[in-house]
Amino acid sequence: MQNQQVLTKNQKIVLDIIEKSSQPLKAYSILFDVKKKGINAPLQVYRALDKLVEIGKIHKIESRNAFIACKNSKCQITKATVFSICENCEDVKEIHDHKLSEHLKHYKDNKGMKYSKYNLEFFGLCKNCIKN
Amino acid sequence: MQNQQVLTKNQKIVLDIIEKSSQPLKAYSILFDVKKKGINAPLQVYRALDKLVEIGKIHKIESRNAFIACKNSKCQITKATVFSICENCEDVKEIHDHKLSEHLKHYKDNKGMKYSKYNLEFFGLCKNCIKN
DNA sequence: TAATATTTGTTATAATATAACACTATGTAA
DNA sequence: TTACATAGTGTTATATTATAACAAATATTA
């Protein structure tokens, strides 16, 4: 299975930081955090991020230029991601909704295009931020 | 209606460039194009882009950091966008699919979040690129 | 062991985006 | 008409996000 492949040192360091965070992290904030572990340059971080995205261990939140760990241990859902984003507190959660996924997975347009993946981002206010 | 408001000079210049392009344009490529019209600085472009996005005249393709005109003249669909993106030729099209929109518009999670908008990007190969 | 591919470390730089500030235009209300 | 508020402008400087290029090290495979 693709995402069980062995990670290199830098990839492990970067993944570790992201997995410990409940919220998406930005590349340069990751860089700051891993400097004490011997990673000195942006490119070292970006290379690890690229690989981790590729194998589905993390996802990029495109609208935020940030990266979040994929909690779904058994999956390769690099290719089909859905997120909810609170525009007030910036809380981000990955959504796993079977019905929604099925709907999107089977979506066909009338242009003859062949889709291999999608990314959906919902924006709004989370429960907490509605109250306040 | 929000997007019938009068545009300023810079907003018109920027919108004009984007509307003339069938494909998404990047901010600095727009800047290059509008220099002959007296717009000299990135910020002038970004401010116009922000406003045009806000009133729904254009949309941002988040995964590409690029901007495309909204063809749907009567709409305010700033809040609900769906795109198809060919990963080979980078052709981008806005998708208007009633069934899909309805499905997404009414999507509710179980976290009590209140959604006000969404952005969905499909990736794959267009008809042309499949052939080649 | 050689050949190949992948990852690393490094420096430099490209590409994308915003802060801050003084000024100008436009609309609205007294 | 003046005063005020609001939005937009022009400008310089700078912040943030991301990649190019190259040499060295490591792992894989034949």
Description:
Two copies of one chain form a homodimer. With 132 residues, the first copy, chain A, is an alpha+beta fold. Chain A has two domains: 2-69, Winged helix-like DNA-binding domain superfamily/Winged helix DNA-binding domain (Arc Repressor Mutant, subunit A, Orthogonal Bundle), CATH 1.10.10.10; 77-131, Dna Ligase, domain 1 (2-Layer Sandwich). Chain A has five helices and five strands. Chain A has helices at 9-20, 27-34, 42-54, 98-105, 127-131; strands spanning 58-61, 66-69, 80-86, 92-94, 114-125. In chain A, helix 1 packs across helix 3 (42-54) and helix 2 (27-34) packs across helix 3 (42-54). Chain A is globular. In chain A, 30% of the residues are buried. The A-B interface holds A 62-63, 84, 86-87, 93, 95, 97, 100, 103-104, 107, 109, 111-127, 130 and B 62-63, 84, 86-87, 93, 95, 97, 100, 103-104, 107, 109, 111-127, 130.
Write a concise synopsis of the structure shown.
Chain A is built from 5 helices and 5 strands.
Keywords:
Arc Repressor Mutant, subunit A, homodimer, 3-stranded mixed sheet, DNA-binding, alpha+beta, Dna Ligase, domain 1
